Amino acid sequence: MHLRTRKIIQESGLSVSKNVMMIKPVGHLDALIMQENTDCILADSGRMQKEAYLLDVQCITLREETK
User: Fold this and answer.
1) pLDDT truncated to tens, each residue of the chain (67 aa)?
2) Domain total for the chain?
3) Across all residues in the chain, what is the average pLDDT?
4) Domain carrying residue 21
5) Taking the model in full, what pTM does it have?
6) Which of these, 53, 31, 46, lies nearest to 61 by C-alpha position?
7) What integer pLDDT is reported at residue 67 of this predicted model?
8) What are phi and psi of 30, to 5 degrees?
9) Rounded to whole angstroms, how far apart are CA atoms 64 and 37?
10) Nearest Cα to Cα of residue 22 among 50, 55, 8
11) Adjacent-strand bridge partners of 41
12) Residue 29 falls inside a structural domain
């Protein structure tokens, strides 16, 4: 999870489901390995959407507009 996203969640008093694992940011290679070995990605990043597509992993886009 991006540090900015974590901060917004904490400041707004939102809670995250126990089914969602929040971890500290990792490098790009580690992120790719985790993406490849998951069932679904929640993303607001266009880069992660493309990577999910290339890895054939389901991706739920958390934004109103994509490019």
Assistant:
1) 777 888 888 899 998 888 887 788 888 899 999 999 999 998 887 888 899 999 999 999 887 776 5
2) 1
3) 87
4) 3-61
5) 0.66
6) 46
7) 59
8) -65, -40
9) 26
10) 8
11) 59
12) yes
- Tens digits of per-residue pLDDT, 14-23? 988 888 877 8
Task: State both tokens at 21.
Answer: 């694992």
Task: Give the 3-state secondary structure of the chain.
Answer: CCHHHHHHHHHHCCCCCCCCCCCCCCCHHHHHHHHHCCCEEEECCHHHHHHHHHHCCEEEECCCCCC
Whether 67 is in a domain gets the answer: no
Could you tell me if residue 66 is inside a domain? Answer: no
d(CA 31, CA 15): 23
Structure tokens at 36: 């490849």
Return the residue matching tokens 């290679």. 29
Beta bridge partners of 60: 42
Domain-located, residue 20: yes
